[in-house]
Amino acid sequence: MAHGAIAAAIVREGDLDETLFMIKPDAVLGHKAGAILAEAERAGFEILDLRLVRLAPRDARRFYAVHEGKPFLDELVEFMSSGPAIPCRLRRENAVQALRDLIGATDPKDAKPGTIRARFAESKGRNAVHASDSTESARTEIEFFFGDGSARR
Ligand code: UDP
Ligand code: MG
């Protein structure tokens, strides 16, 4: 194998990582969870773990702590605690960016055709899914739902 090919193979293997995906209450209550998970699997994501949760408002606020002070936070917290959600621990090559690409822009009006939000989101607020925006957030968010300190026990 040429040196470049070996290097490429190493890079590819190093790129296999995890991200936090969450199907939001609008999509779960709209019976779209199965179709959305199928999209993720079709895009090459492996489901390492998942659960169905009903977030208490204080936990929704803690999950979205990065948005403290934003005008939409109260509404977001109310929405995220209004019904069941399905956080999922997903693995794939380049998982964080690949999942952001798959879900599309925050507002479905701006999301590219074929993306999950273009297909399943109702509005900018009720937008069907969440995906971690960086490797660092992925680590924190996976810990939030699936770590030892989670409400899972
Ligand atoms: N959101 C909203 N109004 C806004 C911006 C965001 O209701 O103007 C909600 C929306 O549900 C979004 C979430 O807050 O998914 C988190 O916002 P962020 O900017 O992190 O968007 P995302 O990373 O989910 O695309
Ligand atoms: Mg975000």
Any overview of this molecule?
By secondary structure, the protein is α+β, with helices and mostly antiparallel strands. It has a single domain, classed as Nucleoside diphosphate kinase-like domain (Alpha-Beta Plaits). 44% of the residues lie in helices and 16% in strands. It is built from 8 helices and 4 strands; from the N terminus they run αβααβααβααβα. It has helices spanning 3-14, 25-29, 33-42, 57-63, 73-80, 95-103, 116-120, 135-146; strands at residues 16-23, 46-50, 86-93, 129-131. A 4-stranded antiparallel beta sheet has the order 2-3-1-4, with helices on both faces. Helix 4 packs across helix 5 (73-80). It is globular, with a radius of gyration of 16 Å. The model has no long low-confidence stretch (mean pLDDT 92). The structure holds uridine-5'-diphosphate and magnesium ion.
Brief descriptors of the model:
153 residues, alpha+beta, Alpha-Beta Plaits, 8 helices, 4 strands, binds uridine-5'-diphosphate, binds magnesium ion
CATH H-level superfamily: Nucleoside diphosphate kinase-like domain
- List cofactors, ions and other ligands: uridine-5'-diphosphate, magnesium ion
What would CATH call the class? Answer: Alpha Beta
Helix-residue proportion? 40-55%
Q: Count up the helices.
A: 8
> Low-confidence stretches at least 5 residues in length (pLDDT < 50)?
none
How would you summarize the topology of this molecule?
Elements: H1 3-14, E1 16-23, H2 25-29, H3 33-42, E2 46-50, H4 57-63, H5 73-80, E3 86-93, H6 95-103, H7 116-120, E4 129-131, H8 135-146
Antiparallel strand pairs: 1-3, 1-4, 2-3
Helix pairs in contact: 4-5
The site of uridine-5'-diphosphate has 8 residues, from loops.
